[in-house]
Structures are given as structure tokens and as C-alpha cells.
Design goal:
With about 220 residues, this protein is α/β, with parallel strands linked by helices. It has 6 helices and 14 strands. The radius of gyration is 17 Å and the shape is globular. The structure holds arabinose-5-phosphate (A5P).
Length: about 220
Amino acid sequence: MFPELSFLKKIAAEKALDFIEPGMIVGVGSGSTVKMFIEVLSQAKIDVVCVPTSIDTELMLTKYGLRIASFLEIEKIDIAIDGADSILLGKNIILKGGGGALTREKIIDYTAARLIIIVDETKINREYPVVVEIVPFAYNFVVNRLKRYGKPELRISRKKLGPVVTDNGNWLIDLHIPLEAIDGRFEKEIKLIPGVVENGIFRRDARVIIGKKDGGTREIDINA
Ligand code: A5P
């Protein structure tokens, strides 16, 4: 990662601390920006309980000694802090799933009373595929149906032969659609294809904190 990019992620992550209060149950997203949030959260020593959205995040929370609760044992999530792969301004769409954690992220992010998304400014209107998590058994069928929307590509592992397997034991399809053709209605349409577990189109109210090259942050509201 370019040092500059990590700097932008860091300032967005630091700003997210303003939304955290002692006693909160905090959903913790996945990805490199969220890792920076975990670092600053541990330094701030605010007494919160964290609910991880991936095994990767759980390992990081454990490493930093933060309190963790399973999603099975809690009644509510006060706030979720998560990253994103692209923010489609004007369409009120957040694209996620670059790290393959979209399903658990969507469960936590949509459950939380409040969602804060932390990104660097390169994520605004960035070309990115719609990520689709599928049950492996349905692979051929789902790929054929997804061709109505764009160009589906099975995500292949880099350090192991074969497909990337998610924390839920499923496969990922990166569905390439030109940015201007992505429609918020695809979230529900794709979800209804048998064999699809979840997709990376996130549409819910959120506050987006953007780390800027000038060292400041900009905040925008997504009203889905
Ligand atoms: C994980 O599945 C994604 O949704 C991440 O939130 C997203 O890829 C952002 O990651 P970075 O902060 O590493 O860019």
C-alpha cells in the first residue's frame, strides 16, 4: 500500500472514534481501513464490546486485547464501523466485498443502529465489481443468471489452487458491471437468485467519513 493511502485511511479511522462511547456494542467491519480503526480504538482505551464481521477481524481484535462478543450472544449493535470498496455518490450505494467478508458485514452493518463507513478519497465513484457470495453447488446456474447484469468472474485464490472460500464456506463471484450501469435495485434482484447468499451492494443510511489528501476529513450522509 502507498504510504499516502495508509495515511488517508488512518485519518478516517481516527475520526470514527468520535462516534464511539463507553459501554457501546460495536460491530467491527473488515479490511485494512478497519484494521487502523482497531489500532486507534485499542489506544483510546474506551470500554466497548466488539462484534467481528470476519475471522480476520476477530484475530486482529484478539491481538489488540479488545473485548469480543459473538453475534449469537448479543441483543443489539449500537454502531458498526466498516470500510468500503466504492461509494457511488448520487446513487446512495456502497460497494463492499473486496475482502470477501460481505455477508457477515451486511448482517452486522444492517443490524446496527448506526453505520459509519471509513474510506480514503480514492474510493469515491471508484470502478469496482459487485461481489456475490454463492453456494458452490449453484455455481453454473448462478453464473448464467448473473450474465444478465454483467461479466461474472469466479474469484480465484492467490496462494492456493482453486476458488477463494469465504468464512462461511462459500465461493465469490466478482460481477463486472460498468459503474454507471449499477442500479440499487440489483441488490434485491441478485439476492433472489437461488444459490446466492449475499451481494456487495449495501443500501442503508450511513455516515461516510472520507480521509482526504490535505490531511482533513469530509463527511457525507448516504440516505438509502
Ligand atoms: C471486506 O469484504 C470489504 O467489504 C472491505 O470493507 C473493503 O474491501 C474495504 O477494505 P479496505 O479498507 O482494505 O480497502
